[in-house]
Amino acid sequence: NRYTFPFELIKSADVVCCTCVTAGQRLFNRYTFPFVLIDEAVQSTEPLTLIPCVYGATSLVLVGDHRQLGPTILNKEVVKAGFKQSLFERLLRIGVPPYMLSVQYRMHPDLCQFPSEYFYGGLLKTGASATKCLNFPSNFFYVSNGREEISQSGTSFINRAEAVLVENIIRYLFKNGVLEQQIGVITLYEGQRSYILSKIFGNEP
């Protein structure tokens, strides 16, 4: 039965995974969820975080990093109303002590050194030794004169100074025989991705 199948599926599940917004569907109203775990909790606004907690939650685990990106809110009035803060950050500010996972395995120790010292007071350590990591030339460019702007789409961000530096590096690589398919650029925003491509391949707005 197409109507009863979702209810039967949830009833038989040990763990239900969904977004905070999806948790607000009436589908969940007939169930109790005493344990709630929210990943990337710092990127969620307080109202969104509270949605999955209304089904009888007695234990709440918020996993996130308040030193990284917070909620993306483009409406200035919403920001003024205080909705830019996550529940994770509110709990920190009222003195609830966090548990820090201090060992990372995601990057080379040389890359880890800067965020560890700048954001985490030197507490972030690397689990893998440098000899087990991929060797790479450790060139680091810190762009301090750039600033974030709303992209042309109005729903993302760009940083023109960073984009110019990326463009210059890529053109240097092209000039020295590096092929397009050998280059990878990682950026957090769709707006920045589009802007960098427009700088390199034309059609710059």
TrEMBL record:
Domain DNA2/NAM7 helicase helicase: residue ranges: 8-75
Region forming the signal peptide: none
InterPro entries: DNA2/NAM7-like, DNA2/NAM7-like_C, DNA2/NAM7_AAA_11, P-loop_NTPase, SF1_C_Upf1
Superkingdom of the organism of origin: Eukaryota
GO-annotated cellular components: cytoplasm
DNA2/NAM7 helicase-like C-terminal domain boundaries: 84-200
A GO BP entry: nuclear-transcribed mRNA catabolic process, nonsense-mediated decay
Annotated Gene3D superfamilies: P-loop containing nucleotide triphosphate hydrolases (3.40.50.300)
CDD domains xrefs: SF1_C_Upf1
A GO MF label: RNA helicase activity
Pfam family, one: AAA_12
Protein name in the entry: RNA helicase
Species this chain originates from: Homalodisca liturata
Phylogenetic lineage: Eukaryota, Metazoa, Ecdysozoa, Arthropoda, Hexapoda
